[in-house]
Amino acid sequence: MLGLGVRRQDGFTLLEMMVVLVLVGLISAMLMQGFVYVAGIYSSVERKQQHWQQQMLQRAWLKESVRSLTNGVDGTLAQPYFFQGDSQSFTGLALQGLSYAGGVGRPLRVQWLLDHDVEQGVLFLHYRELRLGEQNTEVDDNPWYEVGRWQEGQGQFSYYSQGSWQSSFSGRVQGEQDINPRVPELIRLQVEAGARSLDIWLSAAVTSTPYVSPEIANEL
Description:
This protein is of the alpha+beta class and about 220 residues long. It has one domain (about 55-100, about 105-220). It is built from 2 helices and 10 strands, in the order H-E-E-E-E-E-E-E-E-E-E-H. It has helices at about 15-65, 215-220, and strands at about 85, 90-95, 110-115, 120-130, 145-150, 155-160, 165, 170, 185-190, 200. It has a 6-stranded antiparallel sheet, covered by helices on one side. Strands 7-6-9-10 form a 4-stranded antiparallel sheet, covered by helices on one side. It is elongated, with a radius of gyration of 32 Å. The N and C termini lie far apart (about 135 Å). About 15% of the residues are buried.
């Protein structure tokens, strides 16, 4: 009589399945930790890159604006205006503004302002342009543009002229024989905001001495 053969079934035992599940769980946890770590590094690098790009733009705009400052221009419209600066703002006569897009440039007034929002605890850097001869300085007609902001920041402008740093500077004409500087030799912006602090030194492209019309210079 032939015996009945016992058929062996291949497969995983319960213990083997549990070991595989534990190993898969460990590998998944390690991969997830690695992913979170890499994502954190990427986010940190991205934030730093955005911060440095913002600082580069701020420096470039300030440099371009200050280099465009002039000690005077021909014409009666520019006569009443002069450089005036204090620790929180400055206004100056410029050959062209940041809005210049090519073509024939025209002189105008530029203003930079450090604005402290006490409620939000934010320091803003604002910029705007004013046409010569324009008496209306309302915000609607001459809007301020935000160039930078710093959380819990403190900032100030200072001006270098005649061998010393000053917290304020005026290029106001004192008389016909006045030879005082019309623009400072250097303008410095300092912002204290932790890791986002800023310290920029800028110089105008024009001489700081009083303006001389080309016609008068030729006669001399």
